[in-house]
TrEMBL record:
Lineage: Eukaryota, Viridiplantae, Streptophyta, Embryophyta, Tracheophyta
PANTHER family, per database record: OS03G0193600 PROTEIN, TRANSCRIPTION INITIATION FACTOR IIB-RELATED
Protein's GO biological process: transcription preinitiation complex assembly
Name this polypeptide is given: TFIIB-type domain-containing protein
MF term (GO), any: TBP-class protein binding
Gene Ontology annotations for the cellular component aspect, listed alphabetically: nucleus; transcription preinitiation complex
Cross-referenced Gene3D superfamilies: 1.10.472.170, Cyclin-like
Short name of one Pfam family: Zn_Ribbon_TF
Limits of the TFIIB-type domain: 8-40
Organism (species): Oryza meyeriana var. granulata
Length: 316
């Protein structure tokens, strides 16, 4: 990115006069616009890293300085500030004539209670899990919202459960709400227990849905999941080409319109992908598809056998 630096420019020894210059923020160089001589190197930009727009419209200060981390809308306003503490000698010196603490040296507890600190830790863990799964910011924020509602609910968090599984369950609900579902196995892969936490995440999802539903007075909606929601991601993992992905997508659409198959959407998606691989004569085996999609080989095989009689309808 290049910005013009000032109206008067800087003196250029090659041009022997003041010339307009530009600032190259990539290299940190100040460059003469007439002869391209680097007048200054390693320029340090002391302005804020991003604009806050706090003073737009009413002040000449268009670049308010950034102080501290960006705010999190799901945390209390005072959380994340600075805590001022002092040792015993300072506390003694802070006494005034009346024997009271001097106002400026009074201890400020703005870090929040332990519950608020645990909320910060939970949000950090949720964000880390979301990053490892490659989830977008909207899903991460929705999971934070679900966790905060659960934390504030009368019954609170389910007791005796691993926190990782609770965070994963919040992410599962968030993914469903945003129309980008992930399987329990995918979410379990980013917990401390690994895939073994899959059943626990499923149980916790039901508990969270029940807790928050009772609080709102209505059932918590997780949205409808279809095989097409998994298809593109599964196809990418298997290594399908563009034409194969299109064929699989068309097959899933025809299945959802014409057939009534009572199987999990991820099982149907994996089975359709396996059928596409077979029809294309690819080198991917059933085990390869199972490893890429996280669906068991037996489940894929059973679903494929159920769909095989309808191959003409699915693939035309």
């Amino acid at each position: 990115m290049h910005d013009v630096a000032g109206d008067d420019g800087l003196y250029c020894p090659d041009c022997h006069r003041a010339t307009p210059v530009v600032l190259d923020h990539t290299t940190g160089d100040t460059i003469c616009t007439e002869c391209a001589l680097v007048l200054e190197a390693r320029y340090i930009d002391e302005t804020s890293e991003w604009r806050t727009f706090a003073n737009d419209g009413g002040s000449d200060d268009r670049d308010p300085n950034r102080v501290g981390d960006s705010g999190d809308p799901f945390l209390p306003d005072q959380l994340g500030g600075t805590t001022i503490t002092y040792s015993a000698p300072l506390k003694t010196q802070a006494k005034n004539a009346a024997g009271e603490d001097a106002p400026l040296l009074r201890r400020l507890d703005v870090a929040g209670a332990s519950t608020e600190k645990s909320l910060v830790a939970a949000f950090k863990s949720i964000a880390d899990m979301a990053d490892r799964l490659g989830l977008v910011a909207t899903i991460r924020d929705r999971a934070k919202e679900v966790f905060k509602k659960l934390d504030e609910a009368p019954k609170g968090l389910p007791r005796g459960r691993h926190r990782d599984a609770v965070y994963a369950a919040c992410l599962f609900i968030a993914c469903r709400n945003e129309g980008m579902p992930r399987t329990y196995k995918e979410l379990a892969s980013v917990t401390a227990e690994g895939v073994a936490a899959k059943k626990e995440i499923g149980r916790l999802t039901i508990l969270i849905k029940k807790h928050l539903g009772e609080e709102d007075g209505k059932a918590m909606d997780l949205g409808v999941v279809r095989a097409s929601d998994y298809l593109r991601r599964f196809g990418s993992r298997v290594g399908l080409g563009h034409n194969e992905v299109r064929a699989a997508g068309a097959a899933v659409r025809r299945l959802e319109e014409c057939l009534d198959v009572r199987r999990n959407p991820e099982s149907i998606a994996a089975a359709i992908i396996y059928m596409v691989v077979q029809r294309a004569g690819g080198s991917k085996s059933l085990r390869d598809v199972s490893t890429a999609t996280g669906v068991a080989e037996g489940t894929i095989s059973a679903a494929q056998k159920e769909l095989a009689p309808h191959a003409r309808t699915l693939f035309g």
